[in-house]
Amino acid sequence: MALITKKKLLYPINAPLRSYLADHERNADAIDYEELTRYTSAIALYDSHGTDTLWETVLFAPSDMESVHLQLKMVYSNLKSSGRVEVIDHLFIDRIDICPFGNTKPFRVRIVNRINDNFDYFYIKRADASRIYGLELENLLSPNSINYIVHKNTLVEEHIAGVPGDQFMKRHIDDEFLNRVRLSKEFVKFNERCFVRLLGDMHSSNFVVDVTPDFEDTHYRIRAIDFDQQSYEARKAVYFPQFFKQNLPFVEMGMEIMTPESMAQYQLEERSLILNRSISAKHTLNHLFEAMCSQPLSLEKNIIQLGKELAEHHQNQAFKHCTSMGELVKLNLNTLLNS
Questions:
Q1: Residues 177, 36 within the same domain
Q2: Pick from 296, 338, 290, 279: which is nearest to 140 by CA?
Q3: What is the SS3 string spanning 214-261?
Q4: Distance, CA of 224 to CA of 205 (rounded, Å)
Q5: Whether residues 40 and 133 fall in one domain
Q6: What is the pLDDT along the chain (339 residues), one digit of tens a residue?
Q7: Does an H or E element contain 314, and which?
Q8: What distance lies between CA 127 and its chain's CA centroid?
């Protein structure tokens, strides 16, 4: 089983990555992360069942609250509507939460439309180069669009809707109306997407299941929501969701109803889709890898060990000569898509 025991290091945004973000319009004004750390108190946040969510709701001094709320509404307009301020006229900040256990100690902002009570979330985090590369690779190579902006050393991300994987397994895995074949197929494809671009730590708390009812049946899409472990860990197994014990119900369901031949077919289907996306985004992807290869993005020992394990996996000694995680991701991508 895959296991991560040490906290990941944060990597700064260097000049090549800054250039990439500017060229691809990912820069925008936003409140500095440090501004939100000036809260005066925090209280534990519980869900509707009385369970501790591990998030805390933060409170600001009255003298700061109006300014903070206005800045957050402006951030939302930059994230959602390219800075059109008229969209925030009917919005108010309902709650600001912090997750003190996350790598980047993210803030989650709940914003509400006062006319119809519709609400949305967005997240403000310390910028980490690894996470930004993870977001970009997700946007370019997966079937999912990712919306985020960067301001200096602050990262703002939109909310990714779906049922958290761990909750989905508790509440729905035994549902008689669950389409087990479609869900198992999607888990195989998700597993493949993660390994192709070396996205690690995809246990059930770090992805959501997006369920879409159709006129004839139900569609499932598994989406990553945590990109902190983009190509950082040393062991190959960390980049396969199938090896996390938390995901065992998905794995067992797939083994029960699918043959090895059908699994291999779904893997090839997903690689073909990723190949088509990589061709469509060829110039953007090349620019991204230029930036990604300009800094190690992990410990030297991690790069060496992962290079050895990938060399053995692919029977390709070129992996042993990679000196950065960016080089490993690029070579892994090219190897799998051209196999």
A1: no
A2: 279
A3: CCCCEEEEEEECCCCCECCCCCHHHHCHHHCHHHHHHHHHHHHHCCHH
A4: 9
A5: yes
A6: 665 656 788 999 999 999 999 999 999 999 999 999 999 999 999 988 888 888 999 999 999 999 999 999 999 999 988 767 777 888 999 999 999 876 678 999 999 998 898 999 999 999 999 999 999 999 999 999 999 999 999 999 999 999 999 999 998 888 888 999 999 999 999 999 999 999 999 999 999 999 988 877 889 999 999 999 999 999 999 999 999 999 999 999 999 999 999 999 999 999 999 999 999 999 999 999 999 999 999 999 999 999 999 999 999 999 999 999 999 999 999 999 887
A7: helix 300-314
A8: 14
| 325 and 195 part of one domain | yes
Q: Is residue 280 part of a domain?
A: yes
Q: Which range of residues forms the domain containing residue 231? A: 163-337
Cα separation, 223 vs 22, in Å, equals 26
Give the number of other Cβ atoms within 10 Å of residue 263's Cβ: 18
- Look up residue 145 and give its two tokens: 């669009």
Domain shared by 50 and 118, yes or no:
yes
Of 255, 283, 287, give the one whose Cα is nearest residue 191. 255
Q: Which residues contact 123 (CB under 8 A, 6 or more apart)?
A: 106, 107, 108, 109, 156, 157, 158, 159
Q: Are residues 200 and 113 in the same domain?
A: no
Residue 9 is assigned to a structural domain of this protein = no
CATH number of the domain within which 247 lies: 1.10.1070
Q: Which 3 state secondary structure label does DSSP give 95? A: strand
DSSP letters, 264-311, are: HHHHHHHHHHHHHHHHHTHHHHHHHHHHHTTS--S-HHHHHHHHHHHH
Q: Which of 61, 75, 140 is nearest to 108 (CA)?
A: 75
Q: Are 303 and 262 in contact (CB under 8 A)?
A: no
Count of domains observed in the chain? 2
- What span, in angstroms and rounded, lies between the C-alpha atoms of 104 and 102? 5
* 241 in Cβ contact with 228 (< 8 Å): no
Are 186 and 151 part of one and the same domain?
no
